[in-house]
Design goal:
- The structure is a single chain.
- This protein is an alpha+beta fold.
- It has a domain of 96 residues: Metal Transport, Frataxin, Chain A (2-Layer Sandwich), CATH 3.30.920.
- Helices cover 35% and strands 32% of the residues.
- The protein is built from 3 helices and 8 strands.
- The strands form 2 sheets. Strands 3-4-5-6-7-8 form a 6-stranded antiparallel beta sheet, covered by helices on one side. A two-stranded antiparallel sheet has the order 1-2.
- A hairpin with a 2-residue loop joins strand 1 and strand 2.
- The chain is globular and about 45 Å long.
- The protein starts with a strand and ends in a 6-residue tail after the last helix.
- This is ferroxidase.
Length: 153
């Protein structure tokens, strides 16, 4: 064996692993972990549900005004069971949903794509877990871009 290689047998197959490549892969994995911020503490379950439900209700109420104006063909909102679906017609569909196990709100946007939001207890707002962009600001900006409507949040 080369001093940079290890080997082991499994079911009569020998696998060679380069120690230097393995170390490099581990270091890259740890570097990639730093790109996404993981919450170190989880919200109390009841608090989490209350916060998500209030946020989804706020968005539903504001967007209901746009729905009642009926100025965008195909615009529709649906809310229930911790999921808010916003169909902006030809602009695409948003889905915001409650992710209870990790106490996050996950979203899919036709503009910014998939994101995960954690509740920041210091700022008392839902923030994207990579760049800390507040969810309300992002949704307000994107709805204004797609629908020419100010949510006034």
């Amino acid at each position: 064996n080369n001093k940079n290689e290890s080997s082991f047998s499994n079911y009569n197959n020998t696998i060679l692993i380069s120690k230097s490549n393995f170390t490099h892969q581990i270091n890259n994995s740890f570097n990639n972990l730093n790109k996404r911020n993981y919450s170190t503490s989880l919200l109390d379950l009841n608090t989490f549900h209350d916060l998500v439900d209030a946020e989804i209700e706020l968005y539903s109420e504001r967007l209901e005004i746009l729905s009642e104006q009926n100025t965008i063909p195909g615009f529709d909102i649906e809310s229930g069971d911790g999921v808010l679906t916003i169909n902006t017609g030809s602009g695409g569909t948003y889905v915001l949903n409650k992710q209870t196990p990790n106490r996050q709100i996950w979203w899919s946007s036709p503009i910014s794509g998939p994101k995960r939001f954690d509740y920041n207890e210091d700022t008392q707002r839902w923030e994207e877990n990579r760049d800390k962009e507040p969810m309300r600001e992002l949704l307000t900006k994107e709805i204004k871009q797609l629908c020419k409507f100010d949510m006034n949040i």
